[in-house]
């Protein structure tokens, strides 16, 4: 892959597949362009309302009545879904977000979160953060939590809460489905230098529609669960982001490429990967997150 040596543009010369459309795809494309790369937007999945919207309406009615202590959201798509369903803040109750993008999506809908992990933006990290928050509280020995997720989301969050003695009600806020096949876009993706693997659902669609992925194409996973899915369905990813956001993926890609380039300064003292194996500290938001 031919690349510029301009350090101000760490991804210059790279064609990078963005597997989502809509606002998420636009944010990723802008991040790539800001780093000198060329985004190849090939939406492989999209979010749709649940097949049966009644459970979500019922769950939000219970939230609004004060039946829950916490509302937990694990994706920006989930934030959009509950916002469209009429979710509103409840005095005295907490809202938790899995990471900064989800927190921002909640805040724009008047649902400012009060808790999120500081670094590892996963269900497991969010579960650990909320368990720690509840353990430090004085009034809630056993909390009741409403978890709004995708239909096929994992169970790491509720496993952590239930193991600590808390009650979790899970409701499908949306479902992730494959997009319509676009042969021209998928041919363009086949010639790309990098594919961003932003979820297990994306991995499945890459395996179904873009495989075999050339060995020269770099696979970048957003975090360990997606990396595991890639190892099972494609091949082990070349890069796993320490910060579980698209921006973190692009930063990790830039560091990886610099490490392969003998003309670049060493990044051995960088702290960008320092949180990859550490416990996630708690971040309590006091306004719109960064």
Automatic annotation (TrEMBL):
Biological role: Catalyzes cyclization of the linear tetrapyrrole, hydroxymethylbilane, to the macrocyclic uroporphyrinogen III.
Catalysis: reaction(s):
hydroxymethylbilane = uroporphyrinogen III + H2O
Organism lineage: Bacteria, Bacillati, Actinomycetota, Actinomycetes, Micrococcales
The top EC class is: lyase
The keyword Oxidoreductase belongs to this UniProt entry's keyword annotation:
no
TM ranges are none
Q: Name one GO biological process term.
A: uroporphyrinogen III biosynthetic process
Species, as recorded: Leucobacter luti
EC number(s) in its UniProt entry?
Answer: 4.2.1.75
Gene3D superfamilies per record: 3.40.50.10090
Residue ranges for the region (Disordered) are 256-290
Q: Which SUPFAM superfamilies match?
A: HemD-like (SSF69618)
Record-linked Pfam families: HEM4
The cross-references to InterPro entries, in alphabetical order and at most eight, read:
4pyrrol_syn_uPrphyn_synt_sf, 4pyrrol_synth_uPrphyn_synth, UROS/Hem4
| Sequence similarity | Belongs to the uroporphyrinogen-III synthase family.
Query: Any idea what this protein is called?
Result: Uroporphyrinogen-III synthase
- Taxonomically, the superkingdom here is Bacteria
Q: Which UniProt keywords apply?
A: Lyase, Porphyrin biosynthesis
């Amino acid at each position: 892959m031919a690349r510029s040596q301009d350090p101000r543009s760490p991804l210059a010369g790279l064609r990078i597949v963005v597997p989502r459309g809509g606002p998420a795809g636009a944010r990723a494309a802008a991040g790539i362009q800001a780093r000198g790369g060329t985004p190849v937007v090939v939406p492989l999945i999209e979010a749709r309302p649940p097949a049966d919207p009644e459970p979500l309406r019922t769950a939000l009615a219970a939230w609004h009545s004060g039946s829950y202590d916490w509302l937990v959201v694990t994706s920006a798509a989930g934030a959009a879904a509950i916002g469209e369903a009429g979710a509103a803040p409840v005095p005295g109750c907490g809202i938790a977000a899995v990471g900064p993008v989800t927190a921002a999506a909640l805040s724009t809908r008047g649902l400012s979160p009060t808790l999120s992990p500081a670094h590892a933006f996963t269900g497991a990290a969010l579960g650990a953060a909320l368990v720690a928050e509840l353990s430090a509280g004085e009034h809630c020995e056993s909390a009741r939590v409403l978890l709004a997720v995708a239909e096929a989301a994992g169970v790491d969050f509720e496993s952590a809460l239930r193991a600590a003695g808390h009650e979790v009600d899970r409701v499908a806020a949306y479902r992730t489905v494959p997009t319509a096949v676009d042969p021209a876009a998928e041919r363009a993706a086949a010639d790309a230098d990098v594919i961003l693997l932003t979820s297990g659902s994306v991995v499945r669609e890459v395996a179904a529609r873009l495989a075999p992925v050339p060995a020269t194409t770099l696979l970048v996973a957003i975090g360990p669960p997606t990396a595991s899915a890639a190892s099972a369905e494609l091949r082990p990813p070349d890069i796993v982001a320490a910060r579980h956001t698209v921006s973190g993926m692009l930063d990790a890609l830039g560091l990886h490429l610099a490490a392969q380039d003998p003309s670049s300064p060493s990044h051995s003292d960088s702290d960008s990967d320092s949180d990859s194996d550490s416990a996630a500290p708690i971040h309590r938001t006091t306004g719109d997150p960064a």
